[in-house]
Amino acid sequence: MTTDDRIIHATLTLISEHGLGTVTMSRVADVAGVARQTLYNHYGDIDTIVAAAIDQHNRESIDLLDAALQVAESPADKIEQMVRHFVMVGAHAHHAFALGSGLSPDVRATLDSYNAAVEGHIRSILQDGQQRGDFGSDLTPEIDTILTRSLLDGISELAANMPDQAARIATAGTRTVLAALS
């Protein structure tokens, strides 16, 4: 594992376990097992480290989601994959709820790009499902995308609070989201 990898991993660990407010140069250095000077050699400040960590996490998360959606055939199967993805993210505590508060504009922009990618997937699935007749003809993709995302965020938060119930949450979450879209 490279020094950058250790720093990024330490930052994500601190965010997921203790919240963004605990991420300091000293704590990242301690958890990563590197000297503070090493951090400064790689990153100018804590904001830069947080931005890099969130960016890497988001890219990996979108790659996993893309792979899961590629194997799903129907819009309902794609919704199930979305639910399972959000449960996995929540159950592994890599999602810090209300993360956007306290972030710099640059870091928020990184987070916004992830949100836009997820919402783009949702909108595409909803439009496809509506065209195929799998979802309600009264869906409004712009509004229902936001509502579906809210359901997925709630499912992820529940999985974070009850990781031992991840399988049941995925099943119930899929049922709930599909019922909302029918």
Topology at a glance:
Layout: H1 3-18, H2 25-32, H3 36-42, H4 46-71, H5 75-91, H6 105-132, H7 141-161, H8 166-181
Notes on the structure:
With about 180 residues, the chain is mainly alpha-helical. It has a single domain, classed as Orthogonal Bundle (Tetracycline Repressor, domain 2), CATH 1.10.357.10. The chain has helices spanning about 5-20, 25-30, 35-40, 45-70, 75-90, 105-130, 140-160, 165-180. The N and C termini lie far apart (about 45 Å).
The assigned CATH architecture is Orthogonal Bundle
Task: Characterize the largest beta sheet: strand count, sense, and whether it forms a barrel.
Answer: none
Radius of gyration: 18 Å
Q: What is the residue-mean pLDDT, rounded to a whole number?
A: 89
* Overall structural domain count: 1
Helix count from the secondary structure assignment: 8
Total strands: the figure is 0
Return residue spans where pLDDT drops below 50 for at least 5 consecutive residues.
94-98
Structural class: mainly alpha
DSSP helix fraction: over 70%
State the end-to-end CA separation.
Answer: 46 Å
Please, what is the CATH homologous superfamily? Tetracycline Repressor, domain 2
The fold-level CATH name is Tetracycline Repressor, domain 2
Strand content: under 5%
Q: N-to-C SSE series? A: HHHHHHHH
Gross morphology? elongated
Name of the CATH first level: Mainly Alpha
